[in-house]
Design brief:
single chain; alpha/beta; Endonuclease, Chain A; 2 domains; nine-stranded mixed β-sheet; seven-stranded mixed β-sheet; 20 helices; disordered C terminus
């Protein structure tokens, strides 16, 4: 292990052992080969079954009939129900076997059970203050009803006397992170989707290593797909050599499993249980524009100070203790936090893909349905289900000013093309769409009627809304909401507006690819309400959803 203390902080990787060549000539490359072999084997079995169809035609017809009856009477999402009906009727044996495979949820049942246990165990650690709930109800009954739903779904209280700082760029958040990390006295928890060595992570790691030597408990949790793009498999061991406890969530293994659908997309930093950071910004160089891979990187985050930070502590501990039998919550959740002199209400919340509640989507739709003047949105991806698309259109059709800012420079071309397929329908309903010409928008922001906002990790795409562990911060009446709206307006000023007249001028390649991908997604991906995605997603999703390093 080589350590270099430079201006960019600590580096644990040797130069040159990164990117696609590291993947090809490493454990990750072997895993990808083994996964591909298993997929080919499974498809060969399905093909072998299909070869017998002419000989057992009568039995297949009866089997298909009962499968259709079962699907029609199932409790799954209507979109998923239609998708499986089409698959089973067109490919009876293959479709049925694929359906049974995905319904078994191989690889994640234990995870689901364990997460539910931890949620139950900590349900009473964060109790909703009746006075705070009543005050929000008097200020806005609609927002209070939303808070009750979120509290019911995941035991996330709404808080007052909480200071919130809004960061319009990754550079702004990064500077404040370094300041707050230096002040840590008891513990530091980090949970991120992407970690990559460079200026940002190097400087943070330098502080973490020093704090660990001072006796501060430092824990680092990151998503396992990083080993396919940015970090080697043994990186947790390297961090532990610096005194930093470290884990990967769901590391990639050479076994076909629906477990890979569920990624930890959260971005959380908690310091001493009273300061927390949340937003779209990962720990990599492009997020602070130290490296412009897709033009200027526009991202956002918030810093929460006060008792509300405890909700992020709880979210982190849930993920950390998924593979441990003796969790310690009391040490970190029973930490008093100072009340802040601040206006409004703050509600951090998480979204877990292992339950039936689509909290992230429900919060967005609730804001759209209650909006009176405007809803302004920033999102990197626009891959909508029918419910959310209808909510956007309905808000615009009843006179609400609905605007969406999307990237002008894509980081992944397929989502960029898929977003275009929604443009015409939204524009015809009055939704205004803008593309950020300087580069890529990675922010996940909703701001509504100068009174409420959401800043977090939840994209407007099927992966975030259905299959990721996500988190966000809901704000009502806080001082930073005006800053959030000002940032939206300033960002819009650097965008090109997309209109119906301009759609025919979009590149033919983008339009055709969007049409093709949407058709494939309808058949192969939208089995959302029934559990894990079908075979394409089982293998492709972990790679597709990470950065384009491969």
């Amino acid at each position: 292990m080589k350590e270099n203390s430079k201006k960019a902080g600590i580096h644990l990787l040797e130069k040159g052992k990164r990117g696609i060549f590291r993947v090809i000539f490493s454990r990750s490359g072997l895993i990808l080969v083994l996964l591909a072999m298993q997929v080919l084997f499974l498809f060969s079995i399905f093909h072998w079954f299909e070869a017998f169809l002419p000989h057992i035609y009568g039995g297949v017809v009866i089997f298909t009939f009962f499968m259709v009856l079962y699907l029609l009477n199932s409790a799954m999402d209507p979109t998923a129900k239609i998708t499986w009906l089409v698959v089973v009727m067109l490919l009876p044996v293959f479709g049925a076997l694929l359906f049974l495979y995905t319904q078994k949820n191989i690889g994640h049942r234990a995870l689901k059970k364990r997460y539910a246990e931890l949620n139950t165990e900590t349900a009473e650690t964060l109790v909703q203050s009746p006075e705070t709930a009543q005050a929000l109800g008097q200020s806005d009954p609609g927002a209070a009803a939303l808070a009750r739903y979120v509290q019911r779904s995941g035991c996330y209280p709404v808080y007052d006397h909480t200071a919130v700082t809004y960061f319009p760029l990754g550079e702004d958040k990064f500077r404040e992170m370094l300041i707050q990390l230096e002040q840590a006295k008891r513990f530091i928890f980090l949970e991120y989707f992407i970690v990559d060595e460079g200026e940002m992570w190097g400087k943070i790691l330098e502080i973490l290593a020093r704090k660990a030597k001072e006796g501060v408990e430092v824990r680092m949790l990151y998503d396992g797909t990083c080993e396919l793009s940015t970090l080697p498999h043994d990186y947790p061991r390297r961090l532990r050599s610096l005194g930093i406890q470290s884990k990967m969530f769901a590391p990639i293994k050479p076994f076909v499993s629906t477990h890979y659908n569920y990624r930890d997309h959260r971005k959380i930093l908690v310091i001493d249980g009273e300061t927390a950071f949340n937003g779209g910004i990962n720990l990599a160089y492009e997020y602070i524009n130290a490296y412009e891979k897709y033009g200027h990187w526009k991202d956002t985050a918030v810093m929460v100070k006060g008792e509300a930070a405890r909700s992020f502590t709880r979210m982190f501990l849930h993920m950390w203790y998924l593979d441990e039998k003796a969790p310690d919550f009391d040490t970190f959740l029973n930490v008093p936090a100072k009340q802040q002199s601040a206006n409004g209400f703050v509600m951090p919340y998480g979204d877990c893909p292992l339950d039936k509640d689509k909290v992230g989507e429900q919060v967005y739709m609730d804001m759209l349905n209650r909006a009176q003047k405007y809803v302004h949105i920033m999102t990197p991806y626009l891959i909508l289900d029918g419910e959310l698309e209808n909510a956007l259109k309905y808000a615009a059709e009843r006179g609400v000013d609905v605007r969406i800012i999307l990237p002008g420079v894509p980081d992944k071309y397929i989502p960029f093309a898929l977003a275009l397929t929604h443009y015409r329908s939204l524009l015809e309903s009055g939704v205004k769409i803008y593309e950020y010409t300087p580069g890529f928008v990675h922010a996940k922001v909703f701001v509504c009627d100068d009174r409420e906002a959401v800043v977090g990790t939840i994209n407007l795409d099927y992966r975030s809304l259905y299959h990721h562990f996500e988190c966000a911060t809901y704000l009502w009446g806080t001082d930073c909401i005006s800053q959030t709206e000002d940032d939206f307006e300033q960002t819009q000023g650097r965008c090109r507006e997309v209109t119906l007249n301009l759609l025919p001028a979009e590149p033919l390649e983008r339009r055709m690819q969007g049409f093709y991908c949407k058709s494939c997604r309808t058949v192969a991906v939208t089995s959302l309400g029934s559990g894990p995605l079908p075979m394409r997603s089982i293998i492709v999703s972990p790679i597709y959803n990470n950065r384009q390093h491969l």
